[in-house]
Amino acid sequence: MKTNPPQPRLLADVGGTNARFAWQRELGAPITDVHVLRCAEHESLQAAIHAYLRLIGQAAPTTAAIAIANPVTGDEVRMTNHHWAFSQRQVCDEFGFSTWRLINDFTALALALPVLPAADLRQVGGGIAQPGAPIGLVGAGTGLGVSGLLPDGRGGWIPLEGEGGHVTLPAQTPRERLVMDGLVRRYGHASAERVTSGQGLLDTFDLLCEADAADRAGIATAAEVTEAALAGRHAQAVEALDIFCACLGSVAGNLALTLGARGGVFIGGGIVPRLGSAFERSSFRQRFEAKGRFQTFLSAIPVWVITSSQSPALMGVSRALDALS
């Protein structure tokens, strides 16, 4: 009996710092050949795709799906936290893609949530998720991603595509107000992303050191702030990391209330999984629940940190392609 040849797929998860590419031999096949390319080392998305295809020794397939850390509102895409800009139509023409999906990276991650294995999750407080209830998703990395899943009434899910990371972030303490005021001076707007991201962590540290006339001790990157905080060797680094975790708790709690996310809230992104048990000891959970009369409502909602070694967004964009089949 004649069988149809495999229809391979190019998959990608493109952030402001790294672009993760993968190959899928056909619908339902394992995701393989995962390579991480630094965005700064490639002139454009197209250049990065060419580099990946050379790495794995494959010609461009006719099917591709890409998750990108950016709103997708039309043919022209210009990344918020990186210089890449491109026309979707021109990318398809250059590589011969006849089937193409471009979606927000956290929309892709949301699509992967129902199939994430328990081994890739670490629970931080709360009780048991309510089946069929809305699910929230936030994640801090180069930026702050926000998404979620709403039940479609037929046993499936509708992913949310928005830019919740850019909502205005209110301060809860005098020190947070100091940081927010400094961010407004620098950027004109103190958004959630301005605190709960890599650059936000570094900015918070800088503003605290400036206010306290403290020596920065040569700390110049978000990774160095985190390292100093976890080692307890710089007071402003310790405080900056706790403000980061507290504000992320406020954002996640706001999302849980907005969606009625009794199905739980997931924490993705590259920063929180690296904090280990320090995240559980931080102010995150207290601030997640600190919503006055709705504290009891929120205390029951479980939060999970996604600890997958492979980007779950790759699975999400594959599922987005499945929906077209």
Fold and architecture overview:
Keywords: ATP-binding, Cytoplasm, Glycolysis, Kinase, Nucleotide-binding, Transferase. Belongs to the bacterial glucokinase family. It catalyses: D-glucose + ATP = D-glucose 6-phosphate + ADP + H(+). The protein is α/β, with parallel strands linked by helices and 325 residues long. The chain folds into two domains: 9-110 and 311-322, 2-Layer Sandwich (Nucleotidyltransferase, domain 5), CATH 3.30.420; 117-307, Hexokinase, domain 1. The chain has eleven helices and 13 strands. The strands form three sheets. A six-stranded mixed β-sheet has the order 8-13-12-9-10-11, with helices on both faces. A five-stranded mixed β-sheet has the order 3-2-1-4-7, with helices on both faces. Strands 5-6 form a two-stranded antiparallel sheet. A hairpin with a 6-residue loop joins β2 (18-24) and β3. α3 crosses α11 (312-322) and α5 packs across α6 (222-231). The protein is globular and about 65 Å long. The two termini are 22 Å apart.
